[in-house]
From TrEMBL:
Pfam families: KH_1, KH_Mug60-KHD4. Residues 189-275, 428-494, 496-576, 581-649 form the K Homology domain. One of its GO terms (molecular function) is mRNA binding. It comes from the Eukaryota. Residues 698-746 are annotated as: Disordered. It comes from Absidia repens. Transmembrane segments: none annotated. Keywords: Repeat, RNA-binding. GO terms for cellular component: cytoplasm. Residues 720-740 have a biased composition (Low complexity). This is K Homology domain-containing protein.
Length: 842
């Protein structure tokens, strides 16, 4: 009977939304849960054995503190599972392992304290919400608060955040995030409701890149939270999926929050839209390698979601590990469906397969007994899987090692086998399989198959073209020589196509191509790159290349890929600045402010887009993402970015010890004229002196009460209710003892501190050091006690210059190291200038 030893790296679904490996450590509880899963699978199948291996690779930064951590493999290798037994049983166990993975992930949701409802400060409030989320999703939500020694350095309100830590299985974690966001909306007095639509219609009603949904959101100011696009299939649902259409056409809840009238209106609009799409949608099936579909679901889930987002389509994948290979795509029309299918097949090309065949040379060597021991084979596959991150199997019937993984993983396995001397004696054959798009076949072959013939002649390896499906084909590289096989693969990879696509307005196409194509031929010859321009008709039939709007594609062999960008620049030089170099820029705005900005600045945002030709793309609500994307011509992008930043305000809280002198100065006419009016007029920075006085009065009252009662308890209460205090502000001085470092006095300084709020928009961040220079000088002139860091590098003279050089000289080190480190780009920390900026308005 044929036996198989199969090893794989065991890890949860990979996604940029949560942590699966960086903070993942090997611990007893995790190991116990994996062992319990393996025991239940062994009990189910009986004739297979499952073993677990753990790996803890040394951290290079422990020896070399400045070393950059670069992963050696593409897959987390903390846990490796090896299954041995009859081949069919081993593959069935693999299915159960993938579907029953107990490994949890951690999702961190960071929200500025100023963006949360006041009632959330009540522990009973958020505890109730967390428990409700846990019961509904089986995911654990916890609130991570900074300790006394871990307070944030920044004085900006937007950076004083609460960290919601959600822990659980990947699917449950995504559901819990949605439930938590809905609960927070409800605390803000927003009405919530649920809409149920078949999952396959979710992306269709949104449109390509949510072009249909976003105008609805802009108009009604609702938040809409879509569930994860992939259902959580497990062993229980697998047995009924073939006969239960409800599982395929399931209707997970879509949560909608906002004004009551608008929520009801949006529900009706989306229901009507879904009915229309269901009647007119296009769908198509295609076949891919079943293991590659598993790999996509485990390691390329974000890319699959992006494909659906870009095309307004839905990809119905078979259950994980099911060995089914049929994929169904639903879309609004044939163009979107075909583009989706091409993108899925393109993802499949990232996975390589390799087979290394061995035989025992008719029993001539004693070491041949190695292949008769299943424990030896299990050890071999475990080692190869751990060093590469690939799935590795040894099958005794053909006597071969099968490797399935990325190109780097396959090369790592080859390297380890090449270093294992005794295996070379038994080597019989090596085969590499590379999947490519049918559109690239002619490019790979060359004229009369010239490229392939040259590679075979140079390397000594055989290369075959094998058909595979409607969209892709397979290149097979084979050799009986271990080294020649890799040489053939390497030479082939150098000839594989490297491509980029970009957008050029169609009005420029003829000018760039030239009469008879002379202009573009000259450029192509110079850089050795082939260029294809698509007219409106061709573009409509394709739906774009790598980007939805891209209508030009450039292609060259991988060995010449450096010239792709050179060619793009050469083409763009023939276009006027306002129409060329459409680039992407990201802007961070706390996600809970997006709805407010759309409400208050809707007309302004429309004018920004119209005047600068820049498209503003807001993130999906369910992702709770702060990143707003701006896409447009490079010549206008900086202006558009500044105009958007002008809408976004922040509060800088300047900490000062509470004193009678402070209250007197803040109440004075001189402070109003020399500080408040000057900052408002010159730098558009508002000093909220009323809030500062109220803060001072409240703090003084609390201090007096604390001295009359139990100062320790009150100190603790004040700390928990003043999260904006920075660890840097009171750490070295108090009003009574400017040089004290005692920990008790540290807590007293937090209790006795007062803050002066400075409100500014993001475009005025460069002015903040100068504004603080003016504020600190005025306080010093009036003998107001300050914390030690507030006077860091301040000159003894009371006479201050108002020039920008003065502010730069005195606050360069202080701001570069502490206060503005997270909001001003690294390249600007050491060079401050304070020009008068024109406020852009419409």
């Amino acid at each position: 009977m044929s036996h198989t030893a199969f090893s794989l790296c065991y890890a949860p679904v990979k996604s940029s939304q949560y942590n699966t490996n960086d903070d993942y450590s090997i611990n007893d509880s995790t190991l116990s849960s994996i062992q319990a899963t393996c025991n239940s699978i062994m009990a189910l199948h009986g004739s297979c054995h499952i073993s677990i291996a753990t790996t803890s690779l040394p951290d290079p930064t422990s020896t070399f503190p400045n070393a950059i951590k670069v992963p050696l493999v593409d897959t987390p290798t903390d846990y490796n599972i090896t299954v041995t037994g009859p081949h069919d049983t081993v593959m069935a166990a693999r299915t159960d392992l993938l579907q029953s993975c107990p490994l949890t992930v951690q999702l961190n949701l960071k929200i500025p304290m100023s963006d949360l409802p006041l009632i959330f400060a009540d522990p009973s409030c958020h505890t109730t919400i967390f428990e409700k989320v846990r019961l509904e999703t089986q995911a654990q939500v916890s609130l991570v608060l900074p300790g006394p020694k871990q307070q944030q350095v920044s004085y900006f309100e937007s950076e004083n955040v609460l960290n919601f830590c959600i822990t659980g299985l990947p699917h449950n974690v995504e559901l819990a995030r949605i439930r938590l966001l809905v609960a927070l909306d409800e605390l803000m007095n927003l009405h919530s409701d649920v809409l149920r639509i078949p999952r396959k219609l979710h992306y269709l009603i949104c449109g390509r890149k949510r072009v249909t949904l976003q105008p609805i959101v802009d108009e009604t100011l609702i938040n809409i939270y879509f569930p994860p696009p992939f259902p959580a299939f497990d062993t229980a649902t697998m047995s009924t999926i073939d006969g239960d259409d409800d599982i395929i056409d399931d209707e997970p809840p879509i949560f909608i929050t906002g004004d009551t009238a608008n929520v009801s209106r949006v529900k009706d609009m989306l229901t009507k839209l879904a009915n229309q799409k269901a009647k007119s949608m296009y769908h198509k099936d295609t076949n891919l390698d079943a293991r590659k579909l598993d790999w996509m679901q485990l390691h390329r889930r974000d890319e699959l979601c992006q494909i659906m987002h870009d095309n307004g389509s839905f990809i119905s994948l078979p259950p994980l590990g099911s060995k089914l290979n049929t994929v169904t795509v639903y879309a609004e029309n044939r163009v979107n469906a075909e583009r989706t299918l091409r993108s899925i097949n393109f993802l499949a090309c990232y996975i390589y397969e390799a087979c290394f065949y061995f035989h025992d040379q008719d029993g001539l060597y004693a070491d041949a007994n190695f292949f008769n021991s299943i424990s030896n084979l299990a050890t071999l596959t475990t080692t190869l899987s751990q060093v590469s991150g690939a799935e590795v199997a040894y099958r005794t019937d053909p006597g071969c090692i099968q490797v399935f993984g990325t190109e780097r993983a396959v090369r790592n396995v080859y390297q380890r086998l090449h270093e294992t001397t005794f295996l070379k004696i038994f080597h019989q054959d090596t085969v590499f399989n590379v999947e490519l798009s049918n559109d690239q076949r002619e490019f790979i072959s060359g004229k009369k198959n010239g490229k392939i013939n040259k590679i075979m002649k140079t390397s000594g390896a055989k290369i075959k073209f094998l058909p595979f499906g409607e969209y892709n084909f397979v290149l097979e590289v084979e050799s009986t020589n271990f080294i020649k096989a890799l040489d053939g693969l390497t030479l082939l990879q150098e000839e594989l196509p490297a491509e980029i696509s970009f957008y050029v307005p169609e009005t420029y196409h003829k000018r760039i191509i030239g009469v008879g194509g002379k202009n573009i031929q000259r450029i192509m010859k110079k850089y050795g790159v082939y260029v294809k321009f698509s007219n409106a008709e061709e573009f409509a039939s394709l739906g774009g290349y790598y980007g939805n709007e891209d209508n030009v594609v450039a292609r060259t062999p991988m060995k010449n890929q450096i010239n792709l960008d050179n060619l793009r620049h050469a083409v763009m030089d023939l276009i006027t600045p306002k129409d060329k170099d459409f680039v992407v820029q990201h802007l961070s705005i706390p996600f809970r402010r997006h709805r407010t900005l759309l409400r208050d600045y809707r007309t302004y945002l429309q004018e920004v887009s119209k005047k600068t030709s820049v498209k503003i793309i807001w993130p999906n609500h369910e992702l709770a993402n702060d990143v707003v994307t701006l896409v447009g011509p490079q010549s206008n992008l900086d202006s558009a970015t500044q105009m958007v930043r002008q809408m976004v305000s922040d509060v800088y809280r300047f900490s000062v010890p509470l004193s009678a002198e402070l209250v007197t100065v803040l109440s004075s006419t001189a402070f109003k004229e020399q500080v408040i009016h000057r900052l408002q007029h010159d730098m558009d920075i508002t000093v909220d002196v009323e809030s500062a006085l109220t803060n001072a009065t409240t703090t003084a009252s609390a201090t007096t009460k604390g001295l009359n009662n139990d100062s320790g308890k009150i100190g603790e209460q004040q700390y928990s209710s003043a999260p904006h205090s920075s660890a840097s502000s009171p750490i070295a001085a108090t009003p009574l003892s400017p040089t004290s470092n005692n920990e008790n006095e540290y807590e007293d300084s937090v209790l006795n501190g007062c803050t002066i709020p400075l409100t500014l928009n993001k475009t005025n961040l460069d002015h903040l050091p100068f504004a603080l220079d003016i504020l600190v000088c005025h306080l010093r002139e009036n003998h107001v006690p300050l914390y030690k860091e507030s006077t860091h590098d301040m000159p003894d003279s009371n006479v201050r210059s108002s020039s920008s050089n003065s502010a730069t000289g005195n606050y360069n080190q202080h701001f570069g190291n502490k206060l503005l480190s997270s909001v001003i780009p690294p390249g600007k920390k050491k060079n401050y200038s304070f020009p008068r900026k024109k406020i852009l308005t419409f």
